[in-house]
Write a structure and sequence with these properties.
12 strands; five-stranded mixed β-sheet; Dna Topoisomerase Vi A Subunit, Chain: A, domain 2; three-stranded mixed β-sheet; Arc Repressor Mutant, subunit A; alpha/beta
Amino acid sequence: MLHIVNGDFVGDKLRKGNIRGDVLVWREVYPVGPVSVNMEEPWSPRVEYLERTLGISADDYVTNYKSQEQILQNYHQYDEIVLWFEHDLFDQLMLSYLLHWFSKRTLGHTKLNLLCIGDYPGIDLFRGLGQLTTRQLEALSGTWQRIGQKELETGRRIWEAYASPEIERHVEILHEDTSALPFANAALELHLSRLPSVKNGLGIVEQTALDLIRRGINNPRELFKEVGNRLSVLGMGDLEFWYRLWSMSQQPNALLELRGQYAFPDYRQKMAPSFENCEVALTELGLEVAVGEKDWVNVKGMDEWYGGLRLHGGLTWRWDTERKQLVDIEMG
């Protein structure tokens, strides 16, 4: 039996417990940076992006990529495979990628199973499987459900939509039946809320951060914690948040300024005391954008990736979170 899990915490606990089989930790962060529909080999735009933004070296990324793909290619060696995932965008994209991958294979004797939860008894704010103890994970063993054609097809459609370069496809998937993966719709809706909003050109991560800073939370670590609590369905890690914070602090037209000595953490350079102790504040432009007086994309410009969607140049649309639809700003 092969268990494919979403992180090292879960993988380590499964190995220590009484759950039989091999464990494969799927090390990817699909909410960050470009993806393509078929990623059978390391895709250079993604490799370059993750090195530039998160500090993940190209060598490290490629080595890990080839290692986990090789294990996946040998799936036929296992009678059963169990996918362990949770409800957030981080996991739902990982799950959809793997379902897309398996949908193109002849499984033969290999049975696919899914364990996917959005809460756990006794945990008020369930953030993920990593919160659970070894014994709690053991209690989930055997509660997984068989993955059938409907789940494979749903995962395939979600991944192809997320990897599409067309914004319309990212929106259309919200209105399709994805109930075979019951957490997918909410996660994909939050994915779209990360895009430039009709209010001021900010995504929900940036907007939430500015709102919290206005309310007096100005320590980077505390800010990450509070944004994570409010947007828990994103499953956003600290490296992604530091990158978003860094982007907002870049001149010209910065929304934020950091006071004190600091260096932004990344994959190579972990959190330094200087960064822990610095203070985050809004610039004058940051305040104007936060309250909707200015549109940051119009002021700053944009060159960013969300899945297969590259946002750059003259962006003619904005996302209306409340109405869940695109607004053509050229038409007013």
